[in-house]
Specification:
Blueprint lengths: L69 H20 L27 H7 L11 H16 L3 H8 L24 H9 L5 H21 L1 H15 L8 H5 L3 H4 L16 H16 L2 H19 L1 H28 L1
Helix pairs in contact: 1-5, 1-12, 2-10, 4-5, 6-11, 6-12, 7-10, 7-11
Length: about 350
């Protein structure tokens, strides 16, 4: 659980920076929880809105230059979707068009745990929703995605993946063979190659492994050890005993303590009052010790060393990323012009 910012892949998408964070949202203004709730069209309350959960989160790291941004990732996803559906049409099957998730969380936002009081007062240590996205919008997006998946027939999935589909009695779906002429890896595999995105996942993992290496070295750095001790001493003033911020995040109490299942994030239960108090103390101690700025500086220095050591590999990764994004932008622009 130490790395909370690792990208993951998603069925039907080329690369994503975080699937779990794709359907999220927050609550509050001016650093204090908004006591008034907004109302949906049917009169039901939506989740409170936090002005920002990430104002004091760590910003860009040197290795970020070798990863696609959230915007670039969405462009690539759209390009692959355009090519995939065009291919599938030739085989007489369809698939719903790709829809971008409602908002996203900054890539490095939770690297050292929560950093903003407004956020923890609503979510505690639970993952926050992206700024500007309400719980209602997150739930709607999830429901829409589930409904979307249900419209995909076994025949369409066989063409999409290039793999024969077995019958599923529980869901009442029939088996489907792969038609003659379907490209290797299905239409989706071909689309990834055409969009120059077929190596995106491997390149992303290369960068993430270097992130992990730098993070591991940072934890053992004497400056980090001293920083953790200062943060821990600050926490003890509030009667809390944790050696470092991530140990507070990982406290099993927050997973085993019974609270309302209807939390501010649709995928997580509500935080307890104790969890919120602990997270508030955590954030205050991070502020008092300049934790985020100091630790990011240590880790950034180590990343720069790794960039020098892996210069050739990373140069190739960066060039492939550039060509992939340029290609994706061209595909999306041409598709838009053809409509």
């Amino acid at each position: 659980m130490r790395n909370r910012t690792s990208p993951v892949t998603r069925t039907g998408a080329t690369i994503t920076l975080a699937t779990a964070v794709a359907l999220l949202a927050t609550a509050c203004s001016s650093g204090q929880t908004d006591q008034g709730k907004r109302h949906g069209q049917d009169g039901e309350d939506t989740t409170p809105v936090v002005a920002t959960s990430f104002a004091h989160a760590p910003k860009a790291y040197p290795l970020d230059a070798y990863k696609p941004t959230t915007e670039e990732t969405e462009t690539v996803n759209r390009a692959v979707d355009v090519l995939t559906r065009s291919c599938m049409k030739k085989f007489g099957v369809t698939r719903p068009a790709y829809q971008a998730p409602p908002g996203s969380i900054p890539t490095n936002a939770r690297k050292y745990g929560p950093t903003d009081l407004a956020s923890v007062r609503v979510y505690g240590y639970k993952p926050p929703l992206p700024d500007g996205v309400t719980k209602r919008e997150a739930v709607t997006a999830q429901q829409r995605e589930l409904a979307r998946e249900k419209t995909i027939t076994p025949a369409a999935q066989a063409v999409y993946t290039g793999t024969a589909q077995q019958a599923d009695k529980e869901n009442g779906t029939a088996a489907a063979a792969v038609p003659a002429g379907v490209p290797k890896g299905g239409c989706h595999g071909q689309a990834q190659r055409q969009a120059l995105a077929d190596r995106a996942g491997d390149d992303l993992m290369t960068v993430q492994n270097l992130f992990g290496q730098a993070s591991g070295t940072t934890r053992e750095d004497p400056a980090t050890v001293a920083l953790d001790k200062r943060w821990s001493a600050c926490m003890r003033k509030s009667g809390l005993d944790y050696p470092d911020p991530l140990s507070a995040v990982d406290d099993s109490t927050w997973r085993t303590q019974k609270t309302s299942p209807n939390g501010p994030h649709p995928n997580f239960p509500a935080p307890s009052a104790r969890e919120i108090r602990t997270a508030e103390a955590d954030v205050r101690c991070k502020s008092a010790t300049d934790y985020v700025v100091t630790r990011q500086a240590i880790e950034s220095g180590l990343q720069k060393q790794l960039i020098k050591e892996h210069a050739d590999t990373l140069a190739a990764v960066k060039e492939r990323k550039r060509r992939m994004v340029d290609k994706a932008e061209s595909i999306v622009a041409n598709d838009k012009a053809a409509r």
